[in-house]
Write a structure and sequence with these properties.
Elements (H helix, E strand, L loop, with lengths): L2 H19 L7 E10 L5 E12 L5 E12 L2 E14 L3 E12 H11 L7 E10 L7 E10 L11
Antiparallel strand pairs: 1-2, 2-5, 3-4, 3-6, 4-5, 6-7
Length: about 160
């Protein structure tokens, strides 16, 4: 074997060993903690979405910037960015505020798509985004679920 080939094999073995010895990280958990209305322009709705970010790891997460996107029925419904920065402590949580924009045209398209003559019993949604960690890496997050409209109760008459 040539010395170059031996060097490449040794370098690859050290790289693999280095990756294997790195501690495993659990993904961050992000949920919507609240929403507030914001002033918008004529063809948009603006909301301030407050996210609860939970860090299930020992090491703190420093971030500078966040991106958030909501999909409803597999179509983009709202998105937003914020240059907010901060730290989520190890085994801790933080509230991060992100202004999002909902296009009125996008909303109308969503409603028209649901009115195709078929009853809508479930509405699927997906939230995704990322915390920008700069040199320390980006923390991506996501959640998905369904709203089951068939289980919503009609309030009793107040008569």
């Amino acid at each position: 074997m040539t010395s170059r080939r031996v060097f490449l094999i040794a370098a690859a073995a050290m790289a693999l060993a280095g990756c294997a010895s790195m501690p495993q990280k659990d993904p961050i958990q992000v949920t919507v903690a609240g929403m507030e209305g914001l002033p918008g322009e004529g063809m948009e709705i603006r909301m301030l979405v407050k996210l609860r970010v939970q860090n299930p790891n020992e090491a703190p997460i420093n971030f500078s910037g966040i991106y958030l996107k909501f999909d409803v029925m597999d179509k983009t419904f709202a998105s937003g960015v914020s240059s907010e920065s901060g730290t989520v402590a190890g085994f801790g949580e933080a509230i991060v505020a992100v202004p999002v924009t909902i296009s009125v045209l996008r909303m109308v398209r969503q409603v028209v798509g649901m009115l195709d003559g078929q009853p809508v019993e479930k509405i699927s949604y997906e939230m995704s985004g990322k915390l920008n960690g700069g040199l320390f890496g980006t923390e991506r997050f996501g959640a998905k679920g369904e709203f089951d409209l068939s289980k919503l109760e009609t309030p009793p008459d107040a008569t």
